[in-house]
Write the C-alpha cells for this entry.
Amino acid sequence: MQQKIIILDFGSQTTQLIARRVRELNMYCEIVPYNKFPHGDESVIGVILSGSPFSVYDEKAFKADLSQIKGKLPLLGICYGAQFMAYTAGGTVEPAGSREYGRANLTFIDPESPLFKDIETGAQVWMSHGDTITSIPDDFKVVASTEKVHIAAYQSKSLPLWGVQFHPEVFHSTCGLQLLRNFVVDICGGRQDWNADAFIETTVAQLREQLGNDKVVLGLSGGVDSSVAAVLLNKAIGKNLTCIFVDHGMLRKDEFKNVLRDYECLGLNVIGVDASKKFFSELAGVTDPERKRKIIGAGFIDVFDAEASKLKDVKWLAQGTIYPDCIESLSITGMVIKSHHNVGGLPERMNLKLCEPLRLLFKDEVRAVGHQLGMPDHLIKRHPFPGPGLAVRILGDITPEKVAILQEADHIFIQGLRDWGLYDQVWQAGAILLPVQSVGVMGDERTYERAVALRAVTSTDAMTADWAHLPYEFLAKVSNDIINHVKGINRVCYDISSKPPSTIEWE
Ligand code: XMP
C-alpha cells in the first residue's frame, strides 16, 4: 500500500509548499481541509498541521478535532498548527510584542529530540508569526529556541506530537528539509518510495483496471499537462485512446504542425483539426478580452464535440488536470487557487465520465513523469501558454494578418531565448501586439507602424511573478531582429511590471 502523509490545511499561504517539500523526500502526501481528515484510511502514517491566517484565540479560527488522531499517528504542527496543539492542550498563546518575520537562528536544540537529528545549533529558520506560544502544558517540553522565541519547538513527553513555531517548508529555513525528513522518515516510518517510476507503474495499473476495454478521448493543447496525460494513457490503454488537437488559429508559429508531428512520433493516436477559419470569423471585431475567451472556449467545445461524436462508443473524457487545480481551497481566507477551465462543461455535455490521471501531481512531478515516459525535453520543458493563445496577446480585435505579424515577432523572441540559453530560466515569455502605431524611420522613409511588447517572467506557480531581468545585449538583438524582419513593426518595448499588481498576460 502507498504510504501517505496527511497535511491538514488551516489556510496558510505555504500549505502547498509543505506538500511539495514532503514529496521532494519521495514521500506521498495529500492536502485536506482541517476538518476533513480521512478517518479509517490505513495508508496514513503521519499528520502535519499547517499555518493559518488566524490566531488560535480568534472566534473564527479553524478548529480541528484531533482526538482520534492524537496518540495513534505522529503529529507535527507548523506555526498555527503548533500554537493550536499547545493551546488546546492547556498552553498559552499570546500576541508577540512585534510580529516576528524573517530569518532567525536556533540558539538551543535538545540533542535528544529525534525531530532535530543532524541539525546543529545556529541553523537558520524562517519565522512569520504574529502570535507566540508563551507557555506549554507540563506534559510538553521545549526542544528548540531562538534568541527571541523561547518555545521555537516543543514535543510531548508522552505522545508522538511535535510543534515548530517556524516554517521548515520555506526555502530560507536551511534545516527545514532535514527536519521534515526526520519527521516523515524517522518518526513516521516513511519508506520514501514515491517517485516518477512508482507513479507510472501504479497509475498504469489503475488506469487499466478503471478503464478496462473502454474508449477514451482526450483534448491535447500542446501544453505539458495534456501531453503527459496522453502519453501515460497511451501506455495504459494504447489504441483505445484517441487524442484530438484543435488548431484555433491562434497558436504560435508552426506550432500546430510541429506539435502534431511530436505527438505522432510518440505513438499517439491523434486527430489534428484545423478550425482556424471558424474561430477567425467568430472573433471578427471582438475586442473585449473576456468575450474572446468565451468565444474560444465555446468554439473549442463545439469542434471537440463534433470530432469526438464521430468516434464510436467513447465512455471517458481524459484531462490533464494537475494537483494545484484540485486542492480544495479554504475560501474564507481569501486564498485564491487559480484554475482555467478552458473545457469546463465538456464532460456533462458529452455525457462522459472524467478520467484525470495527473490529478495528484505538482507541475515539476508532471515533468519528471514525462521525462521517465521518454518524452522529448522540448515538450516537457515548454513554457505555459494560455488556452486562447495569441488571441489574448493581440490587444483589440483579431485578424489573421495581426496573428501572422505577432507569430513572427514571438518566434524571434522565443527562438532567441533558446539560442541564448535563457529559455529554461524564465517561467514563460511571449510577445504582445499593441493597438497603437508610432512613427519611425527606416532608410530615408518615415514609417507609421505597430509596436510590440515583449514579456518574460520568472515565477514558480504563476500566482505571483517578477519580470525576467534579461541581458540588455539579448534584448537589443531581439529588438533589432524583430524590427528588421517583421514587416509592420517598427517599435519594441520590454514589459517591466511584476504580478501583482500586473498580470502575466496583458488581457
Ligand atoms: P495571468 O495573466 O492571470 O496568468 O497572470 C497566469 C497564468 O495563466 C495563464 N492564462 C491562461 N491560461 N486560459 C489558460 O489556459 C486562459 O484564459 C488564461 N489566461 C491566462 C497565463 O498564460 C499564465 O501562465
